[in-house]
Amino acid sequence: MMRTYGFQPCREFHIVVLGTGGVGKSCLTAQFVHNEWIESYDPTIEDSYRTQVAVDGRQVILEILDTAGTEQFVAMRDLYMKAGQGFLLVFSITSQASLDELATLREEIIRIKDDENIPIVMVGNKADLLDQRAVDRAKAFTISQQWNAPYYEASARTRTNVDEVFIDLCRQMLRRDDSGQLDDDDGARNGSGYGYGQGKQEDGHGPMKKKRRRKRKGDHKCIIM
Amino acid sequence: MSVMLQTPSRASTGSTTSFHPLSRQNTMSSYEGSRSTRQSKRYSMSALYMSMSANDSDLIIEDELARAQKVLRDLKTKISSQSKKNFVLEKDVRYLDSRIALLIQNRMALEEQNEVASHLEDATDIQEGAFPNDDKTQKYGNLLFLLQSEPRHIAHLCRLVTMAEIDSLLQTVMFTIYGNQYESREEHLLLTMFQSVLTYQFDNTPEYSSLLRANTPVSRMMTTYTRRGPGQSFLKSVLADRINSLIELKDLDLEINPLKVYERMIEEAEAKDPESPEAMLPKGITQEEAAENPKVQEIINPRLTMLTEIANGFLETIIDGLEETPYGIRWICKQIRSLTKRKYPDANDQIICTLIGSFFFLRFINPAIVTPKSYMLIDGTPADKPRKTLTYVAKMLQNLANKPSYAKEPYMAKLQPFIHANKDKVNRFMLELCEVQDFYETLEMDNYVALSKKDLQLDITLNEIYAMHGLLEKHAGELYKDENSHLAIIMSELGTAPPQVPRKENRVINLPLFSRWETAIDDLTAALDITQEEVFFMEAKSIFVQILRTIPANSSVARRPLRLERIADAAATSKNDAVMVRKGIRAMELLSQLQELKVVDKSDQFSLLRDEVEQELQHLGSLKEVVMSETIKLEEVYKTIRDHNAYLVSQLDTYKSYLHNVRSQSEGKTRKQQKQQVLGPYKFTHQQLEKEGVIQKSNVPDNRRANIYFNFTSPLPGTFVISLHYKGRNRGLLELDLKLDDLLEMQKDNQDELDLEYVQFNVPKVLALLNKRFARKKGW
């Protein structure tokens, strides 16, 4: 089966999946991309995925980087964050500590991207483990509102809200793209792929360059399954 | 070789003891065949006597071994204190990294600039000081002794504190309370603490698939633990060479993701000839389609072979390094194994290995492979292609430890032959990692030895003490419910924790540690279930060894076979050496007592005792070699961490200068700029800069290099002009205006190359040079 595309080149976005160890980042990603549930104990060091999805009738190519949650790999984060255009911040609803760690991650993203409106989706995974719930849904939602990011509760195991979180992130990125929000450095890199860590040249923000700030219009939502 | 990694001599570093337990090699099987508890107590007893007599400080043995040991001991102390300094500096640099980034982006308010500046100014060495009164010194000495010798309190505390509090707690614990990284008592106490925290985690994790995955106090402890001297030097000796030779091959592309290979292939073809068939290939195909493309396969296949070869090389050195693996790391693996077996009795070896792998590979080896710079294994950041290769290597190693699911990246399945070929080997290796002896039997003894020596002390800062005090207080309800417990008594006497003092008032305190609840040494024999005969025997052995080490090796008394009576007699009658005389008399007494107790027999020249003395002496002889080679290794470690320290300090200096510059500029708007003095030009030859590593690549032909020189000028603070000249020509060939901001930003983005057309400069080295050369009085 050969897919061809019309004149309009497909948009390509880079998504980075972040969160502490064992919250299910890989499971979410593998469910989304391959429709597969990973049963085995297989900590990630760095995995990359590519997939194509239709978002509101538009074809988008996603390059998804699934990262190590293990804190010992923290030195790799900078590189990921520079390359990413949209971020999935994942925690497990069974662990308050895993939610606490997201705050640091978010701060780091905003610092590195120098942009407070960088597309982010907050995901409370393992929503099927209701009896082990340790994070109040309302509490997580409040945090997501403070961050101006949508919040989803998802379950990679039951494939609940898996597509939704990725699609939401795509919408955010598309919206920015359409309204010219993306600067060259994190602009859509159409067509040819590039490896993470490349394309540094474009990455420099001059000292004087001010990013335009934009208030996202009230699209906060708490998605309940 | 297991030299530096074997558990250190048990006697504390403060003494000149010569005792070195024979069987403490970390390769000893923990199963049967190891020495009995009783025997180990004898060893401990012997250590006790050795250290006690040495501690009298009236018998200072001055042979070569003693000198070599002293050198080694000093080195270990230096490494311990230096690695603590680096740990603290690293934290400062990390903090400033993020602040400076904001500053560069002009996003910092003036007040915040001042705050950062004050942070920088304080980042100097903390002065020494003392508590205002003896009472405080004594009480904190009691508290810290209790915390150090009873690790359960800190273990408990680690579970109670938040992730925000844990870093500074662990810093105090690992680099101060148990900061003596090569001393077995402190090491063992620290490991006991680990065990307690690990056990708690196993008990409180419902399913094994989430064990050791989350970032918890345990994982944070593991990170900090691997940062101590032994872990660092192990990583360096096992990985540094392999990583360095790999990153030299900057252009070696071993990407095996078919999509990426496919895309790069098209890109290259387009660049060469846009009309070529490759350049016309369709874009945006799926991974499966890319993987089926014969051209892609042609590119990938040899890469698979190479990756396998490289990963095999890494694996080989890691497995060969079994004996070099630090005792503590191996002991943690052992704990993971036994806790797994206890909690999941059905767990097979595969599950156990998976969990060990999630510590040994995931948290120790692989982070160092993937980000070698942050583990001081290499100087620069690896280029993209080597970085990717290192990531593949780490993934392959991790796949060996865990059950890889190719659902994530299907193309990784191509590396399955590597997994099949090595899986059993790696599992065997991980189980062998667990084969180390426990230390409980000796730990109790170590504590007694420590007690008997009145020189236990700790270098600790006021703020560390107060923070610890505050944390204990905060969790009083959990930590010391029983008001009669030792901890509760001390805490109630200490009262409320003082607040943290400002950085510039912080002091390092040399705190003598001692227990209020002394244990008399005399009670030991009873407590240890050792007979009077054995005590005499040990003491006799120890004294003879000491005498023999003191008298010249070529004297007639020292002739073999040893005649113990004669030796005792010679010592007892030696001239001008009261200590020797005393030792000699004591030796004679002991001989006759042992004779009476029928432990030894004069008629066979006390052969039982004599042979043991002889054995001990021989062991000490080989010990000298061990000590020497350990010293050589540790010197290298020390050099590495000192280099790293220099790097951190220069980084701080750069930030300092930059900040001064920014602030003086903003001040300059209102006030007239104080003396706008042009600094320079400073002249450097091509050769000089090449030697210092500033020039990392040169396109200047060899025979012209002698005629090339550079001028560095700073017309304004924070602004530099670098010009390139050719001898004999008036005008420079090239001139480059540089702002400090730009250089810092390049550095931040890991852009190491500064292009001057004819030569390429290395950004961090340029910064260091500017820093050194243009340091204005207050910044630049």
UniProtKB/TrEMBL annotation, chain A:
GO terms for biological process: axial cellular bud site selection; bipolar cellular bud site selection; cytogamy; establishment of protein localization; maintenance of protein location in cell; positive regulation of Rho protein signal transduction; regulation of establishment of cell polarity; small GTPase-mediated signal transduction. Keywords: Cell membrane, GTP-binding, Hydrolase, Lipoprotein, Membrane, Methylation, Nucleotide-binding, Prenylation. The keyword DNA repair does not apply. Transmembrane segments: none annotated. GO terms for cellular component: cell division site; cellular bud neck; incipient cellular bud site; plasma membrane; vacuolar membrane. The keyword Isomerase does not apply. Pfam families: Ras (PF00071). It is found in: Cell membrane. SMART domains: RAB, RAN, RAS, RHO. PANTHER family: RAS, DI-RAS, AND RHEB FAMILY MEMBERS OF SMALL GTPASE SUPERFAMILY (PTHR24070). Belongs to the small GTPase superfamily. Ras family. This is Ras-related protein RSR1. The lineage of its organism: Eukaryota, Fungi, Dikarya, Ascomycota, Pezizomycotina.
Automatic annotation (TrEMBL), chain B:
Residues 185-402 form the Ras-GAP domain. PROSITE patterns: RAS_GTPASE_ACTIV_1, RAS_GTPASE_ACTIV_2. GO terms for cellular component: cell cortex. Residues 1-38 are annotated as: Disordered. It comes from the Eukaryota. Residues 1-37 have a biased composition (Polar residues). SUPFAM superfamilies: GTPase activation domain, GAP, RGC domain-like. One of its GO terms (biological process) is negative regulation of Ras protein signal transduction. Gene3D superfamilies: GTPase Activation - p120gap, domain 1. One of its GO terms (molecular function) is GTPase activator activity. Pfam families: RasGAP (PF00616), RasGAP_C (PF03836). This is GTPase activating protein Sar1.
